[in-house]
């Protein structure tokens, strides 16, 4: 009679609770959180549409040119946030 070989889990000590993972992630410095968020988002997007990637790169370059040439006016985040909240309907 053949017996099944059991294998050890890859990382049996890894916490499975998302709340604990989130708590740990939030304790990272901003750069670490950004890198983690980027990696997690990248893991969700399995198919890369090269046309979309190039379109985003073109848009970024266009916006940077507009900033560098003064074609657009920059505003502080506080002002942008105020304007955005002003558009949210109140309950």
Mean of pLDDT: 85
The helix/strand series, from N terminus to C terminus, equals: HHHH
Report the total helices: 4
Total beta-strand segments: 0
Structural class designation? mainly alpha
Helix fraction bin: 55-70%
C-alpha end-to-end distance: 69 Å
Sheet-strand content, in percent, reads under 5%
Poorly predicted spans? 1-5
Shape label: extended
* Biggest sheet statistics: none
Taking all Cα atoms into account, the compactness measure Rg is: 23 Å
* Total domain modules: 2
Summarize, please.
With 91 residues, this protein is mainly alpha-helical.
Description:
The termini are far apart. The chain contains four helices and no strands. The protein has two domains: 16-45, no CATH class; 47-91, no CATH class. The model is unreliable at 1-5 (pLDDT under 50). The protein is mainly α.
Any key phrases for this structure?
disordered N terminus, 60% helix, mainly alpha, 91 residues
């Amino acid at each position: 009679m053949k017996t099944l070989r059991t294998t050890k889990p890859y990382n049996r000590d890894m916490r499975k609770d998302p709340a604990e993972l989130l708590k740990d992630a939030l304790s990272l410095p901003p750069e670490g959180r950004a890198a983690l968020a980027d990696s997690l988002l990248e893991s969700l997007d399995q198919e890369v549409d090269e046309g979309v990637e190039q379109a985003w790169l073109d848009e970024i370059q266009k916006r940077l040119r507009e900033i560098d040439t003064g074609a657009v006016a920059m505003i502080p985040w506080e002002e942008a946030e105020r304007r955005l909240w002003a558009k949210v309907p109140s309950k």
